[in-house]
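Hey all, quick one. A colleague (J.T.) asked me to put the S-adenosylmethionine job into the tracker so the inputs and the C-alpha cells live in one place instead of scattered across chat threads. No bug as far as I know, just bookkeeping. Sequence used:
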Amino acid sequence: MNELEEQIFEAKKNGLSDQEIGEKYNVNLRFIEKVITKYLGVNVSSPTPNKKVKMLQPKKFTLETTTVWSFKSRGNWATHNGNYRGNWSPYVPRNIILRYSKENELVLDCFCGAGTTGVECKLTNRNFIGIDINPNAIVLAKENIDFPIYGTLSGRYTSPKIIFNVGDAKDLSFIDDESIDLICTHPPYANIIHYTDNHKQDLSFCNLNDFLEEMSKVAKGNYRVLKEGRYCAVLIGDMRKKKHIIPLGFWLINVYLKNGFSLKELVIKRQHNCKTTGFWYKNSIKYNFLLLAHEYLAIFKKCSSKQEQMIEVPDQSSFKSISTALKPMSIEKLESTTVWIFGNKNWHERTIQNLIKRYDVDDYNIINGITELRKLSASNRRYSLLVLTCTTLKCFQEFCNSTDEIVNYVHDDGYLTIICSDIRLKDGTIYPLGIKVESYLRNRNDLKIKEIVMISLENDGCKIDIDSKDNLIISHKYLLIYHI
Ligand SMILES: C[S@@+](CC[C@H](N)C(=O)[O-])C[C@H]1O[C@@H](n2cnc3c(N)ncnc32)[C@H](O)[C@@H]1O
C-alpha cells in the first residue's frame, strides 16, 4: 500500500466521510472504495465495528400492499447498518420473508453479503442458508448475526438454524433438489460496484454479457433447489451508459423467466439517495438524462406444471383520450429522476407535459390504439414525439404488427414513447408487458432505448386495480422512451 492509500485508510478509520476524503486527497469514490477493499478485502463504507443493538424489531412495520415500495429510512433495527456497500434495506427481505414463507421454513440467499437476509430470518424465526463468494463478507455476516434474541413476533421462538458459508452462487450442489422454501437474494448489478479485490468468481467483475450468462447458471440452480409452488425474489437495478439506460433489470428478469420461473410480482423499489435539486437537477436537464431512482424486485414462482392462462383481467386503467392541444408550459418543475409520482386522475396529462417539455418538442401526437394510428396514416405527417399506449395484450399484438409503420411517423432524432403496464393473469401471475415490449424492440437498429421511467400512481381516491389478498395492487406503469 502506498503513502496516499495509507493516508486514505487512516482518514477513513478516523471517521471522515467519503466526500471529505475525496476533497482532501483529490480522489473519487471509486478510488476510496478500492483502497478500503484492498486493505480489508471487503467493500465497506466504514472500517469501524457495529454499534450495539438498541431495538430488535422495526418500530412500525406493515406489509407492503402495492407494487411500489418506498422506504424513507433504510432501517437500523437489530444489527442492520449501511456499512457493507450495496447492502439492501432490511425492509425488503422482511417483506418478502413474511409474505412468502412461514416460521421454521428454510430460506436461501446465495448473494448474502453482510447477512441482512440472515438477520431478518433470525428475527422472524426462519432457518437460513447464506452464501457469498467473499470470505470477508461472511466474517461480517457472522458478526451481524451474533446478537441475543428472546422471542419473535409470534412468541414461539425456536432458535432457527442460521448458516453462512463462503461459496459460489452458481454452485448450489450441496443443497438438495426442492429443499428450499424461499429464495431471497440481491446479486451485484454487473460491474457497477466491486465487492472483492478481484476474486475469480466474483460476478461484480463481469461485463454485461458475461454477467447475464453467469446469472443464467445461478437461476438454473435456484430453480432446482426451490420447492414446487414456492417463490424466489431477486432485487436488481438498471445501469446507465452515455446518457442512455441499459435495462439490466429487464434483461435479468428475462434470464429467470427463460430458466422456467413464472413472474408472481414485479415490484418497483424506490431509491431515496437520489438528489433531485441543485446541481443534479440542472445536469439532468442540461445533459438530458434522468437520475436512476428505482430498482426492480422480481418475485418469481416455481410452477413446473404451468397452466398459464393468457386471459386478462379487464383493463381498469384505460384513460380517456386526451386532447393533443395540451399546454406544455403548465408544469412548474420537470421530473429529473426515473420515478414520476402522479395522481391516478391526472397522471397521463402530467406525463405528456413532462415529455413535451423535457424533449423540447412542439410537434407531437398521442395515440391510444390502432384506430388512431389509422387516422394518423391519413394525415401523412411525422412527429418529433409520438406517445403510444399499450396496456393490453391485444394492443401489444397490434403494436408488433405495425411497428415499422409507427416508427415511420417519428422524425430522425425524435422520440417514441410507449406507455405500458403489467397485466395480472387469471392464475395470479404477472404478464410483464413493459419487459415484453423492450425485448421485442431490442434488436431494432433504428430505435435506441433512452429511458425507462416508472409512473407511480398515488392513490388519490380512485381505485387503481383489481385487488386480491394474494396479489399486490399494481400501482405503476412504465414509460419506455426510445430515441430515433
Ligand atoms: C448486492 S451485494 C448483496 C448485499 C446483501 N444483500 C446485504 O444486504 O449485505 C452482492 C453480493 O454478491 C457477492 N457475490 C459476487 N459474486 C458472487 C458469486 N459468484 N457467488 C456468491 N456471491 C457473490 C458479493 O460479494 C456481494 O456481497
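Adding what we noticed when we looked at it: Residues 415 and 448 are 10 Å apart (CA to CA). The longest strand covers residues 226-237.
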